[in-house]
Amino acid sequence: MNSVYILLVAAVGLLAPRDGSVVDMLPASQRAVLAKPDQPSRRAAAVCEPGPWGTAAPLALVWRATENVKGPWKIRIATDAALKDGRDYHVLAKDLVPRYDGVCRYEVPRANLMPGRRYWWRVWGATRCPKWTCGAAVGPKGCACGKTGPAPASEVWSFTAADVAPRWIALEGSAGNIRDLGGWRTADGRRIRRGIAFRGQALNDDSVNGEAAGRNRLTMEDFRYLTGTLGIKTDLDLRTQSEIADMKESPLGPSVRFVHNSSLAYKEIFIPEGKEAMARNVRLFCDEANLPVFFHCIGGADRTGSLAYVLNGVCGVDKKDLERDWESTFYPDIPAVNENTTGVPFSDSTYWRSSRHFDEGFAKYPGATLKDRIEAYLVDCGVTKDEIEKLRSILVE
């Protein structure tokens, strides 16, 4: 016997982001600071601009529903118009920004959009089965008792994530300052590939006693995202032996290669130990079997920032963008070139916390451009020119 469906007089209409629109990936505060032409102006603007910092702009979805469609809601965001390759969000009333005149607003947690990619989205609104007594809400496939048709659904709209850098990655756990190394333009108009290398904080705490590894910072959702969606194959840990203690395996599990390479930062990348560590790090990126790589120290700032500066710099990213990437870790309190944010000069022991040491260190090497000087530095570290060209072929679009 064929099912008899009861038609629900209801509608769900999408409001924002508008069909075909471009969605900002960065909050207004970050866009305003990154647009400034030099470090002093960006530092001054960062202090004046209210956050958020160290994160992408939230993806806010807005729709309107008629009175008899009150949720809960199902939202699908997909990378294809047929919505087959998508992710579902099940949304309760408590998850929404307060609703007025049937308007609902939902901020997608950890949307982690790919810049420049087009996405499609749709909203289904649940109602109760009005005639039968099964007590179930009507979903996208209809009522549980089979007597009521599918829930009212919106049209399908699309939007494109703004093609900007940096691309921030948000996790559910406590590891932060995570972003894609890619997205920055090179001098010849090309760009660093996204999805190849990610930089950030450590995925577990430092050891508290130098004997046992620190607490894992990840949730199961983070584990699935990093190993599944991002496909991380190598965890490159730049910390010292005392910081990682007895670690032999990545917090991402045995399927991810764990590489421990105690590394240095700023002016110390130019001393023998720093150069040896840099050579080992660069060679790891020359082997496509290791990619994608997640590289980090404890905070994703100094040792991580120094390696990121060299990787992007030798590929031809402009000095101003190398500085913007380095500064993005610190907004709104960017360490000044030779003073801290209180105006008190750094002592010699803490003076290394400055990007000025990149200028001073690479200036000692020959070359007409910063890219050439960083290449000469890497050759001095023991990296061959063939390895450098291999690195560029992998990292540059």
Q: Quick check: average pLDDT?
A: 89
Structural class: alpha+beta
Question: Architecture of the largest domain in CATH?
Answer: Alpha-Beta Complex
The H/E string reads EEHHEEEEEEEEEEEEHEHEHEHHHHH
What low-confidence regions span 5 or more consecutive residues with pLDDT below 50?
Answer: 1-10, 338-352
Largest sheet: 6 strands, mixed
Instruction: Tell how many strands the DSSP assignment holds.
Output: 17
Helix content percent band: 10-25%
What sort of overall outline do the alpha carbons produce when their principal axes are compared? elongated
Largest beta sheet: strand ordering: 12-13-14-17-15-16
End-to-end C-alpha gap: 58 Å
Count of separate DSSP helical elements:
10
Q: How many domain units?
A: 2
Percent of residues in beta strands: 15-25%
Q: Indicate the radius of gyration in whole angstroms.
A: 25 Å
**Corresponding CATH superfamily of the largest domain:** Protein tyrosine phosphatase superfamily
CATH top level class name of the largest domain:
Alpha Beta
CATH topology of the largest domain: Protein-Tyrosine Phosphatase, Chain A
List its salient traits.
10 helices; 17 strands; 19% strand; Protein-Tyrosine Phosphatase, Chain A; 2 domains; alpha+beta; six-stranded mixed β-sheet; 397 residues; Immunoglobulin-like; five-stranded mixed β-sheet; disordered N terminus
Entry summary:
The protein is an alpha+beta fold and 397 residues long. It is 24% helix and 19% strand.
Please describe what this structure looks like.
- This protein is an alpha+beta fold and 397 residues long.
- The protein has two domains: 12-161, Immunoglobulin-like (Sandwich), CATH 2.60.40; 168-395, Protein-Tyrosine Phosphatase, Chain A (Alpha-Beta Complex), CATH 3.90.190.10.
- Helix content is 24%, strand content 19%.
- It contains ten helices and 17 strands.
- The protein has helices spanning 28-34, 39-48, 220-229, 241-244, 272-285, 303-314, 319-328, 356-362, 370-381, 385-395; strands spanning 12-16, 21-23, 59-65, 73-78, 86-91, 97-100, 103-108, 118-125, 127-128, 137-138, 157-161, 168-169, 178-180, 197-200, 234-237, 257-260, 293-296.
- The strands form four sheets. Strands 12-13-14-17-15-16 form a six-stranded mixed beta sheet, with helices on one face. The protein has a five-stranded mixed beta sheet with strand order 2-11-8-4-5, with no helix packed on it.
- Helix 1 runs antiparallel to helix 2 and helix 6 runs antiparallel to helix 7.
- The longest helix has 14 residues, at 272-285.
- The termini are far apart.
- 36% of the residues are buried.
